[in-house]
Structure formats: C-alpha cells, structure tokens
Amino acid sequence: MIPTLYGIPNCDTVKKARVWLDQHGRAFLFHDYKKVGIDRASLEGWVAEHGWEVVLNRNGTTFKALDAADKEGLDADKATALMLAQPSMIKRPVLDLGDQTIVGFKPAFYEAAFPA
C-alpha cells in the first residue's frame, strides 16, 4: 500500500512532511482535504485512533474564528461535525499508513514508521 498524506499544500508542516518523504525515497499519495474534503469514515477512524483532542486543530485561525457557542461543549461528535464542515480544522498532516495513522509531523515519528 502506498501511504496517503492528508493536508493542505500551502501548510508549512505539510511541506516539511512532503520533503521528508521525498528525501527518504518514500512514495506517497497526497490528498488535499481543503479542496477534496474528507470522508466521515476516515475522520472518525482518526478520532477513534488518536482522540478528537489530537485531531482537532484548535490553534488554527479557522477554529479561533468560530463563535463561542461552537467551541463550547466539545466532544468527539461535535468536533467531528466541525472538522467535516471545515476540514482546515483538522491537524496537519495526517499520514495514513494503512494499519496506523500519524497526526502531525515529527521526523522521529516518520523514522519509526519507515525503518531503514
């Protein structure tokens, strides 16, 4: 299986992940979820694997621009609905390796996922 990198092309962290994958000769597919969106099953899988608190990017401008009512009482269902409606609220990137996903980018996590 070829891994899929989910994100937004102009995101600096996504760019770092793409460069890392390229420099290490790792083939991958890129899924721009700002343009293409994200399907509910994938998002719910990420939330189940990592928790909505990890998957929801609360530091981004999209989340910060939400009304206070939308930010209150967050749980997995509400966070998932927000991310489906506005995929830019998903932490970036998400690397789908088939049997696991990695949320965010840290070289050490990628090195562990792709042993030499």
What are the main properties of this structure?
116 residues; alpha+beta; four-stranded mixed β-sheet; 7 helices; 45% helix; 12% strand; globular
The total beta strand count reads: 4
SSE succession: EHEHHHHHEEH
Question: Strand arrangement, largest sheet?
Answer: 2-1-3-4
Which geometry do the CA atoms define? globular
| Cα-atom radius of gyration | 14 Å
Structural class: alpha+beta
The residue fraction in helices comes out at: 40-55%
Oligomer: single chain
Number of helices: 7
Mean pLDDT across the residues is: 95
Spans of at least 5 consecutive residues whose pLDDT stays below 50 are none
How far apart are the termini? 17 Å
Strand content: 5-15%
Could you write a compact summary of the structure shown?
With 116 residues, the chain is α+β, with helices and mostly antiparallel strands. The protein has helices at 12-23, 40-50, 52-55, 61-64, 68-71, 76-85, 107-113, and strands spanning 4-7, 29-32, 94-96, 101-103.
Explain this structure.
- By secondary structure, the chain is of the alpha+beta class.
- The chain is 45% helix and 12% strand.
- α2 packs across α6.
- The protein contains 7 helices and 4 strands.
- The chain has helices spanning 12-23, 40-50, 52-55, 61-64, 68-71, 76-85, 107-113, and strands at 4-7, 29-32, 94-96, 101-103.
- It starts with a strand and ends with a helix.
